[in-house]
Amino acid sequence: MMVKRISSLILVGALALLLPWRGGARADGGASLEYKLKAAFIYNFAQFVEWPGDAFGGPSAPFVIGVVGDPSLAQMLEQAVKGKTAGKREIVVKYYAGVDAIQRSHILFVAASERERMGDVVRRAFADSTLTIGDFDGFTAASGMVRFITEDNRLKFEVNLDATNQGHLKFSAQLLKLARMYNK
Amino acid sequence: MIGSNGRRRGMMLGMACAAVVTLGLARPAPGGDAPVAADSQDFTSMSLEDLMKVEITSVSKQKQTVAEAPAAVTAITQDDIRRSGMNNIPELLRLVPGLSVAQINGSHWAISSRGFNELYANKLEVLMDGRSVYTPLFSGVYWDTIDYIIPDLDRIEVIRGPGATLWGANAVNGVINITTKSARDTQGFLLSGEASTVDYVGGVRYGGKLDDNTYYRVYAKYRNADDFDLPDGDGHDGWDALRGGFRVDRYASDQDVLTFQGDGYSQREGQTYNLPILLPPFAHATDDTSNYSGGNVLGRWTHTISDTSEFSVQLYYDRLQRSDVQLGYTLDTADLDFQHRFELTKGQEVIWGGDLRYQSDHIRNTAVGTFDPNSRESYLVSGFVQDNITIVPERLHFILGTKLETNSYSGFEIQPSARVLYTPNDKNSIWGAVSRAVRTPSRWEEDSRIVFGTMPTQAGLAGELDTVGRTGFDSEQMWAYEIGYRVQASKALTVDAAAFYNSYDRLRSGTVGAPSLSVDPLPPHLNIPITLKNGINGATYGFEVAANWNVTPAWRVSGSYTFLMTELHRGFGVDPTLERVFEGTSPRNQFQVHTYYDITKNFEINAGLYYVENLRTGDIPSYVRIDAGATWRPTSNVEVTVGVQNLLDPQHPEFNSGLFFNETTEVPRVVYGQILFKL
Question: What is the nearest CA distance from B330 to chain A, expressed in angstroms?
């Protein structure tokens, strides 16, 4: 018994020494990969969705990707699309702290924190032809247009065609082939 | 997303994902099927097709894709759970190939992996959200106390075969990891109710936000189950259970996830005990109603250091109280767990960690069972390390690891494992493993004297057989040899097969000693001790094959076949009882087929057929069980299900090893209706 007790103590001691150990420098968090992916998906949507002509202020107006409620994603998007274009338009990323701060955007990513304000978001999106993207449960059910879903540890997306039609957005067949259709 | 349930979940997921990955659900992309590297490359230059192949578990987990599936893993997803129509966790385990699940009576189950089934099957580790629910009294799980709001379960992952290198002693024949959804994924109201011919179950959950990064849920659930029937007459095994709990998940930063959760339960269970007495007929059926209660709190911090490095620290406290005519039992457990995963070199991923567990119990002795001492404190200290070595990227991996532990019962234990995975291409993978695992002694085996049975003797006196534990009882040990093969035969068809040979040594046995005359209790009787020893060895071998076929997008068929042989041998002078019992408590052949059909988006029909071969122990006949149910979703927040279980059979027995006093009843046909309402 005594021997067991002592060997326990030795192990406890060894663990106690190890516990406060910290790893090396902080690099990208594991979450950043997901952000990078989402940013790339959003960039792809900008290429494969067609907006009505009146969605842009003029021939040289930029393509606006807005993010509401998720500053990390906005940052990641900014890095990802730097110097890139949608059609011939320069892509600009804008971050809005809340639904009230939203300006006219061509794509709007809505974080789960704005879940309660989906009604306002959807109303504006339909009027402005804004492609709304979210990643929380019930986003498409609340007339959001594209919802990211994670399945088998892979990022996929679901499209609510009723909503995209109401926003006068045309999804290319290429895109729809990869999408999951949302049905009420 | 990021290992929010710590190492155990991480590993399980890793292995389970691996299965999925190997089975290759990814779409074929132009330019070949090579898995997509997820380093710091520019994703915007990739096509959506390719983006959809990138794995997004945390990077450390992502490294263990195909490479870390050298084990027989099955995951029951929330979809499987929902479509099964089953309303509690032990029943859901019927879906897993290689497990044997038998209901003893209304509230008791015998559940084991790859043999040695019993009321308290002792070679299976079970974790709920990272908390071990394996108890050291008889070595087993109180399945009646394992429950949750079923739609809030995330998944149930099962490893058949040894998991001891990571999970520690007692993960000999398998590990079951039950995980609940994060609070973030269970926001809003959920009401669920079931009424059936045998029970009423009602649950309510509410999930909300404390601030932008902090989510919580609270829940309560009540179950009231009727008595099952005996072959001739009514049983006394109805029960009711009330439980409640909470979970808080705080995403403190991109690198840090904090989880705090707790549950409590109180239940009242009817049970008939056939208690041994010293007068003819030497058994007395006693109807008892017992109160069992318990609770736990758990905190976990997961920190991502970098893309290739992550650690988690977890602390929990658990208390359980069970008092009935056999024994009174109180157990307090405190457990501190640490794990860290990092990339040692390019191509070597290391996971290491340690665990400290303190347990303190108190036992109320009764006429059928005494423990000396009746209170005992015990410690478990363990550390593990596992290295995943990539020999050929994406093709050949070796995984070497070991667990070292010291515990108050058997002292120092070493549990190493070596695994290899060969993936010649994305459609096929082959794995093999050699591992050692031990099942550490229980309190019963060291400190107890339990009445096993009473009978008349030749001398005209009554005889009483007592099992007697002793301090020298040793750990049971096993060497396991496993191979497995997974193939994606076509886009729609996947097959997963595993075979094993488990060699056991020092299994629990009894040796009958010299009778002595006793007058305590009266009447005078012969007391015959059965000393618990480690006198049985032997082997089990078998295989499991599971297949999944997506016939059409709306119709899925899955099935599995399980074969198991148990061959035990006892040493000189060893009583044959336990050898015979355990050779016959797990079915040799089992198969099951499920069909999941979505007739429309809002209406689905699901059905399952289970065949379980007869058990020699207890003369349990083989049975075929058919379950079928229809689910209708009139709106997106209402779901209505009606169904039947055991369609073919008004009632049938499933288990009786004769080693416990609890009366066995028969599993009835059940007609049920369920309603689920989300807001």
Answer: 24
